[in-house]
From TrEMBL:
Family per record: Belongs to the ATP-dependent AMP-binding enzyme family.
Domain AMP-binding enzyme C-terminal as annotated: residue spans: 407-480
Pfam families noted in UniProt: AMP-binding (PF00501), AMP-binding_C (PF13193)
Protein name per its UniProtKB record: Acyl-CoA synthetase
AMP-dependent synthetase/ligase domain ranges (all copies): 4-356
Species of the source: Aquirufa aurantiipilula
Coiled-coil segments on the chain, per record: none
InterPro entries named in the record: AMP-bd_C, AMP-bd_C_sf, AMP-binding_CS, AMP-dep_synth/lig_dom, ANL_N_sf
């Protein structure tokens, strides 16, 4: 019996989900999941790792669809609600999924394509009651979920994780972040990424806690939920904290004090999925009384490194290896380094199994001795890892120096006229690459004045040589700036 099935029976009538003004118990959740499994199986005994795509609203429908796919022996393939049809087609064609569960609101988008492609479309609101069927025994080493990478440098790759890998990720987080049955968390994250699926939903339900859903992002609604006093855990990405800070700063002093009192009672607040600017961490601590716990992870590895639940949460750092996760830094020749920056490599049971249908890409992603090559560069000091950036986008090689775009961004953000920024490397015949900055301003300032400021803060070889001003930075669904989109603006 899979872990979530066993746990759901253990917690029985306790509330698992609060969704659409309704409360759903663990018994109701697993019952609906078994119904979905029966619908998927029809006359089969086992889906035998057949991928099943699903595009349903966050909440009861989402979790029971996911669990139902797993109970039937299938591989769950969550699809982003905002995906255009071409992106959905790519996922269905790449996985070979022949079954698609969707909310009724997406039928007009999907029905013609699914009919032409021979894909069985199950509309959540119109699904039949299944007859009682015998569910298959699903080994834990089977494939469980395919999540797609962002595809910033190539077509998105499907990351296949097993049931064992997912449960290993959950157990590691439960141990490190001290989840308990009393946890009540609010899900505001998209559910085609590991942050919302594993950290928010799966780990909370693993221990018998409650997950509450917010259908659409709204700072006002988030703070309304905070004031109700039931929530005690909150996880978000830096851009969400940035927007919450802006909302808090628009309130009166008495309103801010009331909300700070509510937030101080939280057990834990976490930031992840993109680098947390130190300025955002410091502002949030002043306004909320909470020092955010920053961590590091990615689709292929789950969470790997984290600031401590108890102990110093060091600004600008992602912390230490999580339980059962091995971490090392290596140079360009794959030699282990100490006392200098290197690429992060990860090993352990939390690491994914393979890129779906891409044997060569899978082999290239691992060393011969089984370490996953993240492509992220970090340094280690006093036991804490600090991310310097990605090899491909955040490490700028200029005049023989390796420069961290993230470090330069932190300095730029300290200027009072700068609201946000992103630093990229541009090809240059003489220097290899030159530093360029894209800046969102709070108030007018010239590039010359910004340049003077930057030269007073860091060596000249790190200072941007080009500036571009935008009203906002392009970002993906998890709030990461899409730097390749910025580079073309300088050409």
């Amino acid at each position: 019996m899979l872990y979530f099935q066993q746990n759901a029976r253990t917690y029985g009538e306790a509330i698992a989900l609060l969704s659409g003004s309704k409360a759903y118990s663990y018994s109701t959740l697993i019952g609906q999941a078994e119904n979905i499994a029966g619908i998927l199986l029809e006359n089969q005994a086992d889906l035998h790792q057949s991928p099943v795509a699903y595009m349903v609203e966050p909440g009861f429908a989402y979790v029971s669809a996911q669990w139902g796919i797993w109970l039937a022996g299938g591989i769950a393939v969550p699809v982003a609600l905002a995906h255009p049809l071409d992106s959905i087609k790519y996922i269905l064609q790449d996985t070979g999924a022949k079954t698609f569960i969707c909310s009724a609101s997406f039928t007009s988008l999907l029905s013609d394509f699914c009919r032409e492609a021979g894909v069985r479309l199950i509309v959540w609101e119109d699904k039949p009651e299944s007859r009682q069927v015998s569910l298959p025994e699903v080994p834990i080493d089977r494939g469980a979920m395919i999540l797609y990478t962002s595809g910033t440098t190539s077509l998105p790759k499907g990351v296949l994780s097993t049931h064992h890998g997912i449960e290993s990720q959950i157990k590691s987080l439960v141990e490190a972040w001290k989840y308990t049955t009393n946890d009540h968390t609010l899900c505001v994250l998209p559910l085609h990424h590991i942050h919302g699926i594993i950290n928010v939903i799966s780990a909370t339900l693993y221990v018998g806690g409650k997950v509450e859903f917010l259908p659409q992002f709204s700072p006002e609604e988030i703070f309304t939920r905070f004031k109700q006093g039931a929530l005690n855990v909150f996880m978000a990405v830096p851009t969400i904290y940035f927007k919450l800070i802006a909302y808090l700063e628009s309130l009166t002093e008495s309103e801010r004090k009331e909300l700070k009192t509510c937030m101080q009672a939280f057990r834990l607040m976490i930031s992840g999925s993109a680098a947390l600017p130190v300025s955002v961490m410091e502002k949030w601590e002043i306004l909320s009384g909470q020092r955010l716990l920053e961590r590091y992870g990615m689709t292929e590895i789950g969470m790997a490194i984290s600031n401590p639940y108890e102990g110093e949460r060091r600004a600008g750092h992602v912390g230490m290896p999580l339980p059962n996760v091995q971490v090392r830094l290596v140079d360009e020749e794959n030699g282990v380094v100490e006392g200098q920056p290197g690429e992060i490599q990860i090993k352990g049971p939390t690491v994914f199994k393979e890129y779906w249908g891409k044997e060569k890409a899978t082999q290239e992603a691992f060393t011969e001795d089984g370490w996953f090559k993240t492509g992220d560069v970090a340094e280690l000091a006093d036991g804490y890892y600090r991310i310097l950036g990605r090899n491909s986008t955040d490490i700028i090689k200029s005049g023989g120096y390796k420069l961290s775009a993230l470090e330069i961004e932190e300095v730029l953000r300290t200027h009072p006229s700068v609201e946000d920024c992103s630093v990229v490397g541009l090809p240059d015949e003489e220097w290899g690459e030159i530093v360029a900055a894209v800046v969102v301003l709070k108030s007018d300032i010239s590039s010359d004045a910004l340049n003077t400021f930057m030269r007073s803060k860091m060596p000249a070889y790190r200072v941007p040589r080009k500036y571009l001003f935008l009203t906002e930075l392009p970002r993906n669904a998890m709030g990461k700036v899409t730097k390749n989109d910025l580079k073309v603006l300088f050409t």
